[in-house]
Amino acid sequence: MTDEQTPGPRRPGEYALALLGHGAPADDPADASPHRFPDGGSWRTEIPSVEGPEALATVLEEIERLELPVHRISQGSGIWMLTDAEITEMVQATTERDIELCLFTGPRGTWDIGSATRTLSGGGGLRARGHDQVAGCVEDALRATALGVRCLLVADEGVLWLLHQLRQQGVLPADTTFKVSALVGPVNPAAYAVWERLGGDSINIPSDLTLQHLTEIRRASGAPMDFYIEAPDDLGGFVRMYDAAELIRRGAPIYLKFGLSKAPAIYPYGRQMRDVTLQTARERVRRGRLVLDLLARHGADGGMSPLGSRLPGPLNRFPIDSSATPNGSETDPRFTPERI
After folding, report:
1. Are 84 and 145 in contact (CB under 8 A)?
2. How far is CA 174 from CA 148, 151, 163, 178, 274, in A?
3. SS3 annotation, 123-183
4. pLDDT tens digits for range 297-337
5. Fewer CB under 10 Å: which end of the chain, C or N?
6. Dihedral of the alpha carbons of 62, 65, 66, 72, in degrees to the nearest 10
7. Is the pTM of this model over 0.85?
């Protein structure tokens, strides 16, 4: 009997290695995540770094050609790098296909005049430096949601907390979700739980965390996890396709993100990066097809959320002091709802 004839789910090379006395121990049920998406699924898919309408059209074409199920498409350059017409076009194209569109709030420290982000330490990284950058992120969120975007990428804990409060107060639509960026992702269970409580609806963790780390996080939080199966070079360039089944088992509910290593950085995107952006967009879809094919060969492709699913389900949040009225906004005529 070959591995291909062994009923799944199974581990890679399981039967052949067992014949030679190199079989792996059985999975420990205690390592498995008890959590799921509200639709009952344990995993969803995401294509990241889709930097505008043209790249989106390329991705949608490849998704159809390779028959890849996709729940979410995300962008990294920022809402402020897109025109209203471009955002509207992206919203329409994804809505027609029942795919969630997630756009990044900006500005951020890596593009600021401060020099610390250019040092070996990286300074504050993607976080919003000072009040003005926080204000820019909030402005991006207001603009994008007014144009129909319902998922926002956030790279600063203060910005996340403010946006969550605006969502709770009805300034942002109640069904808006917040996705925590991979470049500020938590690396321990306590930090992961804090990001959830600040308002995170799905939380990127670095792709160099071990499988045991995922189990530890799941003992502290059930918030959806985002995980680069293949990470861009600036996130380590890790390729963890053969870990996909175990990442799902331990990390559910989890978004499998199909990034691309050995590819040029494209943020912030402009037409000067057009050719490489479209080429890498196609390849990210192909990488996704490779991962799902691998899961299918091992009988581990069950449990995917239905296409069109996007909400995270009930999550734990820090309490909000609803009695506070910031800056007298209820009485100041400058802060009428139509002017927020």
Report:
1. no
2. 13, 11, 11, 11, 35
3. CCCCCCCHHHHHHHHHHHHHHHHHCCCCEEEECCHHHHHHHHHHHHCCCCCCCCEEEECHH
4. 999 999 999 999 999 999 999 999 876 555 545 544 444 44
5. N
6. 50
7. yes
